[in-house]
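Bumping my old thread because nobody answered last time. Still need a sequence for this structure:
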């Protein structure tokens, strides 16, 4: 497997249905969100529309909020043990069309189409000995591993990749996705198989089989692995076979989870490179939660929302919006369309944490062109405070003069001189959980 065969040369930017719709998103809702992205966000780099979990289940959401995933549900399947969209939710998929009509619509808007899958093969197929395409009579029970299951979702058995027919099964589902026009696949219960704490990377061979299937299918697809936390000791394997891998479990709008991401990003900062994107997970902004119990606004304060975007962008995480796009308010839309901030995803490199205490944190990265330096200041504390960083900590040229651009405010600031020994070359007074982001250019 060669990395050049993969997509995602820059961090993918898009929208995922999960945070708002849970398991029950419909075709009409996907189309509505895609239209909004095309009209309002595409020009800023947003391009992926991703249908999250259980799109093949006609009874999704039937037991919410008491039960998220319907136990022993009967998916929509084709004759080859492959999940297909539920036509009561995705009408254009009827008569064997699958997701192709919906993907075609998304593509017509100049966007890209993605889906979520659980690793493995449906339990229903194993129990009923349904056939595997491309084999000489091998059935699902022959490749299913009943001792490899998800801790949180009972839909699938893992695939035993030592068995004849295992690779053929993965080849067959990705060949189907290529026919549909899928550009992005989020594979779940695979990055960290947390049912097995003694062996959290137990699906390693399935990752390899999926990567091989993508290469064989002939269509460029982003491979995203969930959930986290990913194992740093497996970084080389993840880099070789995937484009994105989650460095956290599901990320929601709680300050404690956001604060913890600073340490997670520090652990993974050396693994960020072209085609290799440690993933901080979705952006829980705007309207959330309708499919879980009741629609609500994000619990993040405005300062926390900006801090999240600042960290994700300087770290160069993929960006996936969780909100219902048509309901974005102007403040959230402005947060997601600041071209000077989003430029860090494509025009910066070498992000690293400069320092971190319980209350403050500083990150820096280098501009790909020129002698620019991006600097992010964070107040991690619960009270307003001044956050500072020295020229020495930023490794700036002693005695050089730097112009300063405030990227969130689109404003030029007073020029500063880099003097070794000064403790506070760059400072900002920040509200609790707030941040500032600057570009410094040597004159």
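Sorry it took so long. Here it is:
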């Amino acid at each position: 497997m060669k990395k050049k065969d993969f997509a995602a040369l820059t961090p993918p930017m898009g929208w995922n249905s999960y945070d708002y719709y849970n398991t029950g998103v419909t075709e009409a809702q996907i189309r509505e969100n895609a239209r909004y992205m095309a009209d309002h966000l595409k020009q800023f780099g947003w391009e992926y529309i991703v249908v999250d979990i259980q799109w093949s289940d006609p009874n999704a959401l039937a037991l919410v909020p008491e039960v998220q995933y319907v136990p022993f549900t009967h998916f929509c399947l084709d004759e080859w043990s492959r999940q297909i969209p539920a036509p009561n939710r995705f009408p254009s998929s009827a008569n064997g069309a699958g997701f192709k009509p919906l993907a075609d619509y998304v593509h017509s808007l100049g966007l890209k189409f993605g889906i979520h899958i659980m690793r493995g093969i449906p339990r229903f197929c194993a129990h009923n000995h349904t056939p595997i395409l491309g084999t000489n009579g091998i059935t699902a029970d022959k490749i299913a591993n009943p001792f490899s299951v998800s801790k949180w979702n009972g839909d699938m058995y893992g695939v035993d990749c030592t068995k004849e027919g295992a690779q053929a099964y993965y080849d067959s589902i990705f060949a189907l996705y290529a026919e549909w026009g899928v550009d992005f696949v989020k594979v779940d219960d695979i990055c960290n198989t947390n049912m097995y704490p003694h062996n959290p990377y137990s699906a390693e061979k399935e990752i390899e089989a999926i990567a091989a299937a993508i290469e064989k299918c002939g269509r460029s697809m982003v491979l995203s692995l969930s959930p986290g936390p990913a194992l740093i000791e497996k970084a080389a394997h993840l880099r070789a076979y995937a484009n994105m891998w989650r460095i956290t479990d599901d990320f929601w709008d709680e300050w404690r989870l956001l604060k913890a991401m600073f340490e997670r990003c520090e652990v993974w900062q050396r693994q960020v490179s072209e085609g290799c994107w440690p993933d901080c997970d979705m952006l829980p902004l705007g309207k959330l939660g309708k499919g879980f119990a009741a629609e609500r606004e994000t619990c993040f304060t405005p300062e926390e929302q900006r801090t999240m975007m600042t960290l994700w962008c300087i770290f160069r995480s993929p960006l996936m919006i969780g909100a219902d796009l048509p309901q974005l308010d102007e403040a959230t839309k402005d947060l997601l369309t600041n071209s000077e901030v989003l430029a860090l995803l494509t025009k910066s490199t070498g992000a690293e944490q400069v320092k971190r205490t319980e209350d403050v944190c500083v990150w820096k990265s280098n501009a790909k062109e020129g002698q620019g330096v991006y600097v992010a200041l964070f107040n991690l504390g619960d009270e307003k405070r001044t956050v500072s960083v020295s020229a020495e900590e930023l490794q700036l040229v002693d005695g050089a003069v730097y112009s300063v651009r405030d990227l969130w405010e689109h404003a030029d600031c007073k020029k500063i001189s880099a003097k070794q020994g000064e403790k506070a070359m760059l400072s900002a007074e920040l509200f609790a959980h707030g941040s500032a982001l600057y570009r410094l250019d040597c004159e």
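Residues 278 and 319 are 11 Å apart (CA to CA). Let me know if any region looks off to you.
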